[in-house]
Known about the structure:
It is built from 3 helices and no strands. With 92 residues, the protein is mainly α. The protein has a domain at 15-39 and 58-92. The chain crosses the membrane at residues 12-34, 65-86. Keywords: Membrane, Transmembrane, Transmembrane helix.
Amino acid sequence: MTVPVTTLLRTAAVVAGSFAVAAGCAVAVTRLVVRTRFFAMPETRPDSWHGRPLRQADRERRDGLNPFLLALLTFWVAFGIANLALDALLLG
């Protein structure tokens, strides 16, 4: 049993499009979320832009979640949703 070339090309387009959408979503979500206090911040950060030392509260280490795990989860969820949507649109 052989599969037509057009079906293979459409499937490749669905996978490539889903990958692009998922990568963009993962980057966007990770960039937005790492700015919150839910994620770990390093102990040593440079002085503030105006040259004064940071407050003691800003120097303390904050434990938090690993942003890589969030990026991975976001990627796979977005990939699955985009794959289903593009599959329905292109392959019928």
